[in-house]
Amino acid sequence: MTIKIFDIYLFKKMIANFFVFCGMLFVIFLFIDNLSNGWEKMHGISDFKLFVKDLLLYLEYYLLYFNRLIGTSFSLFPFLIFLAASNVLYSLDNASSKELIALKTMGASSVQIMIPLIVGAVVISLLLTVFREFYLPKCVCYCSLSRKNFIARSDEMEIRRAIDDFGNFMLDGEKIIFSQKKIIKPRIEVGNDFNRYGARFLANSAVYLPADSQHPEGWRFDEVTSPMEFLKNASLRSPDNGQVVFYSPSDNNWLEEDQLFVATHLSPTILVADNDWFVYGKLRELKAAINDPTFRNRVVKLIINVHTRIGRFFTDLIPFFIGISLFLKMPIGKKSRFNQFISSIAAFPFCLCQWLFQICGESLGVPDLAVCGPLIFLPFATTLFVSLFRKQV
Fold it and tell me: 104 pLDDT band (50/70/90 cuts)?
């Protein structure tokens, strides 16, 4: 019964430690950034509802920024999971309480002590997965906004230039009204080997249209200003496979005489988020994009991001199993802080190598290197954990 009570105690303490560490880092980062760049002006407390709304958006902005800082490529979350567990063991093994020694005296093995910590690590990893796969995709359009624009949360957003590798063109514009899926002053820069009417397509506005029986997914340009000659000639096809990319009103009666249609999978979300979409977008959309010729020059990046995110629920636990297993294998007692330091040194390289493997995988065009490289730590984690079963109490 006593051991079961301690199991619950260890589990709760580990969860609390993790959120305390994350909260401390978050607050430190928030204050440093605001001291450097100044505090953003918000509504006064006299208008309480608007004040609370601004405050929540303020904190949400820093939550996304905080995740970008420590939760993406060079992710510190796996190390924080280990650190939360190691701090629990240190608090049990410090000079004043010696609870770890008492537990072992009562017959608890290292594996039994580790089980509630494993459950805690799994729960934390699950929460991080929910945050990554459900919350971040909903906020992907706002990840790149400045703090001022994030709090203002205007429907008019800046367009980040996006490239369609299949159509060999770049889509840009003055701004986008996101709720209406409408671009103001859209502009397309076309490769010279594809467009015989000039390098640019210009119009006063463009509206995003989903695929239907008349056309694929893409943008309808309204009040086209250039090239006017194209509107009187046949649609343009891709030189690669002959598929129509630029639809002309001359051979498509569903278009007005001052309209043209551009077939592309560059959705409003991608135009606003751009590179952030490749990192934080919905997983099913990123998986589909791997086989989409629109992104054929970014397939390596897509494969790395998709498969890394799929496996992160498990890989986030590798530093935990390395460090905590090593901590419990070392002598307990007076050197508990030294044990924590040594186990931290053993656990941290995973985070560094995960980052380095991703850089090398992208630069060399070898996604397997980025996805599978960090798994070289798995045998060490397994060996250390299994060895606890053979360790004498």
Answer: low
Please state the φ and ψ torsions of residue 28, each to the nearest 5 degrees: -60, -45
Kindly give the pairing relationship between strand 169-172 and strand 156-157.
unpaired
Number of neighbouring beta carbons within 10 Å of residue 23: 10
User: Which amino acid, one-letter code, is at 239?
Assistant: P
153: left (phi over 0), alpha (psi -120 to 50) or beta: left
Region class of 313: left (phi > 0), else alpha (psi between -120 and 50), else beta: alpha
Tokens at residue 154, please?
């205007």
For residues 246 and 253, is the Cβ–Cβ distance under 8 A? no
φ/ψ bin of 248: left (φ > 0), alpha (ψ from -120 to 50), beta (otherwise): beta
The string of pLDDT tens digits covering residues 175-186 is 999 999 999 999
Read off the DSSP letter of residue 155: S
**Is this model's pTM higher than 0.90 or not?**
no
Q: Is 244 helix (H, G, I), strand (E, B) or coil?
A: strand
Q: Which residue has the tokens 């979350």?
A: 77
- 164 phi/psi in degrees, rounded to 5: -100, 105
